[in-house]
Design goal:
heterodimer, A: alpha+beta, two-stranded antiparallel sheet, B: ten-stranded mixed β-sheet, 0% helix
Chain lengths: 168, 156
């Protein structure tokens, strides 16, 4: 395996985004039954987030016809700049099947508590050029809703696909 | 092209970095030529496609053929509201991105600006970057030199 295996696996915490008038609510429960990749980032992240999403796109291509069994979800944790529609559009630029979900301030607070990671702005959040500290790893949740794997950024798409095939 | 040295981030930060090489088998498009007379050149520059108003990164291999070290002190581009030097770094499982004022370019060496490491950040793109497009920017150095860079845009 190229990622870090969670052994024993534990139930993934809840993940819910209320959406807005143009984008419906989304929950991790919506993709139950599919092996799901989650990455928490922001759409104006120029380096790490697009690198991860591009590697996911390669992974999805490498999985070939099996992709209905998988969900790829980019979760934006920068409510001041990322609307649900912006985030959905951003994720689809990498693959039309990718999901982009934006969290509100309250949802970011809930998710960082439940998932046990940190998200915070760096620089002056009143200025347009602040950056956001976010988890380095992508999380892989299996079809039964259990956290199984953490993938550091930089794992090649083919290697991600290889790991995903072994998550049952 | 073999990158002889990942960016010497140790001089920028003590954080452990996951600079494990180019991600996902990225094959850089053809190198954009820079001024032949300069000992400094940016090879194989590339960027991902992006929307107008979005933020993008420019990656390249910065080569210094001189026997004298230099320091990259800035980048500018008409294409963005703000053009800055950035380094991505992981610390304790959290990903950060820091603006840096300068980056050393040792003599007779090259420095890799690559995904998950050092990059030029274009914030507030004045037009979309589309596949096949070119981004023009200028790198400036402590020596007073500057070099033009043409970065090839490809699908994200």
């Amino acid at each position: 395996m190229h990622g870090t295996v969670m052994d024993p696996p534990s139930a993934a915490p809840p993940l819910v985004a209320a959406g807005d008038t143009s984008v419906p609510a989304w929950s991790l429960k919506d993709v139950a039954g599919r092996t799901t990749l989650l990455f928490f980032g922001y759409t104006s992240c120029p380096d790490v987030c697009p690198t991860v999403l591009a590697d996911w796109a390669r992974a999805k291509r490498a999985l070939g016809s099996d992709t209905a069994d998988y969900a790829f979800v980019f979760v934006a944790v920068d409510p001041a700049r990322d609307s649900p529609e912006t985030t959905r559009r951003h994720a689809r630029q990498f693959d039309a099947g990718f999901l982009g979900v934006a969290l509100s301030d309250a949802e970011v607070a809930t998710v960082t508590r439940d998932w046990g990671f940190a998200v915070y702005p760096e620089g002056d959040p009143r200025q347009p050029n602040y950056t956001v500290a976010h988890p380095a790893h992508a999380f892989v949740v299996d079809r039964r809703g259990r956290l199984r794997l953490m993938l550091r950024p930089g794992v090649r798409g083919e290697d991600i696909a290889s790991d995903l095939r072994r998550i049952r | 092209m073999r990158i002889s040295r990942a960016i010497s981030v140790a001089s920028v930060s003590a954080f452990a970095l996951g600079l494990s090489g180019c991600s996902g088998g990225d094959a850089a498009p053809a190198a954009a030529p820079t001024r032949a007379s300069s000992p400094l050149a940016a090879h194989a520059a590339w960027s991902r496609s992006a929307d107008s108003g979005a933020t993008a990164a420019v990656y390249f291999s910065l080569v210094n053929r001189s026997t004298v070290a230099d320091t990259l002190t800035g980048a500018r581009s008409e294409l963005a509201e703000e053009t800055t030097l950035h380094v991505s770094m992981e610390h304790g499982g959290t990903m950060h991105m820091a603006a840096v004022a300068s980056l050393p370019v040792p003599a007779k060496d090259s420095v890799a600006f690559q995904p998950l490491g050092a990059h030029v950040m274009l914030r507030g793109l004045r037009r979309p970057l589309v596949d096949g497009d070119t981004v023009a920017l200028t790198l400036t150095f402590a020596s007073g030199r500057s070099i033009p860079v043409r970065s090839g845009v490809r699908l994200p």
